[in-house]
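Newbie here. two chains, one complex. Structure please?
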Amino acid sequence: MNSEIGTMRVKSGLAEMLKGGVIMDVTTAEQAKIAEDAGACAVMALERVPADIRAQGGVARMADPTKIREIQEAVTIPVMAKARIGHFAEAQILQALEVDYIDESEVLTPADEEHHIDKWGFTIPFVCGCRNLGEALRRIAEGAAMIRTKGEAGTGDIVNAVRHMRAVYGGIRRLGSLRDEELYAEAKNLGAPIELVKWVAGNGKLPVVTFTAGGIATPADASLCMQLGADGVFVGSGIFKSDDPAPRAKAIVEATTHYQDPEVLARVSQGLGEAMASISTASLDDSQLLETRGW
Amino acid sequence: MEEPLKIGVLAVQGNFREHVNVLGRLGARASEVRKPDQLDGLDGLVIPGGESTAIGKLVRAYDLEQAILAFKGAIFGTCAGMILLARGAVDATPDQPLLGLIDVVVRRNAYGRQVHSFETDLELVGETRPLRAVFIRAPWIESAGPAVEILAQHDGRPVLAREGRILVAAFHPELTDDTRVHELFCEVAREAASVRT
């Protein structure tokens, strides 16, 4: 019958199914259930949400397998988990646990200062963060089957997410305006393989699904990201660090579907209580930024 | 020249854009459906793959459940869409809507988690050329009523089936360039339209 597992089409296929949806960070089985009941299309299992990682410092690692299994047993939607940048042994463990997607994430403390994981060797698909088009294409060249713009996790400030989306989508539009012979120099500028640069120039999009992450705290933030071109959103601390997680989770799900409908957005934005305690990214020192991890 | 078919694609969550693209290539006029009134005047509706629990909740919250039950055109459900159209699911979450428009019982995530997702060649009833099919955390048809026509199987499990104006697939024909399943759905939609007029 010529059956194959782990092909790029199968890996990126799951990301295709997540589109138009919200992927929520959860640290317990109870939170995972709340996320599923709110209509999340997947959950991200982790030890601490980014806001707590930021506040507590120390080394942030892959979640305890016990916790990941509890979350897998609690819900039927896909369960993702984070591995440190370059930490292929954590990724191997996550594959053995049969998580549905691995996020090679700058939110955790990087394990390698030069190399990301070679993602082609895995059956499980990977999602990776990026700040601009070159970074996105380097991750795709390494085998990422899904991309998310990084934003600045754990802040509740959307401004970095917007900057990164503008950089990626603006970069794609710019490639489309170049002449064929100009693409070679541009590939060099971007630090990305020419084949991928040509593909993006010809197709006007990335070859994989592209979500937005980092700083989404309200339904309006979700709508903004979708209107700027995101295929869907990751919400980290924005839900479970807010006053009343369940209604906020449901409101962000509805805002992601009806992102072009201001009447729906006005209705779902009402009465949600306080958003997460937020930090303006402009007040952070360079050393406090998570987005600069990865290259 | 025939009027182009008007096909809506349920766009609350999931892989709706690819269905719109394929239907457009086949000459249909495809539109996105997020609210009940967007079903008016359509010849057919596609319910795409995505997360069946997420789609189910959004369908219920925006009164699309009754609207789809009242819709008289052809309906094509893939993956999560197949689950939504089924009479039953052996492992459904308690509050998951099942519209019962086709007499099948399905098993969700029947092949397991993503690590077991796969692509394979299927034999289609009445066709010699195999169909490349992509299964993503896919369901299968556990049992089907007598009026249901099984059009393809994988390892003895039905994965493509039709009952009258309803067509369901456990896999994702929108993820490959082979348009035969969508062509079949357009035929079903034309038949359903000619019965109504």
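Moderator note: The helical segments of chain B are 16-25, 52-61, 64-70, 80-85, 180-196. Chain B touches chain A at residues 11-18, 34, 49-51, 53-54, 57-58, 61, 79-80, 91, 93, 108-109, 112-121, 134, 136-137, 154, 172, 175-176 (CB under 8 Å). Thread marked as resolved.
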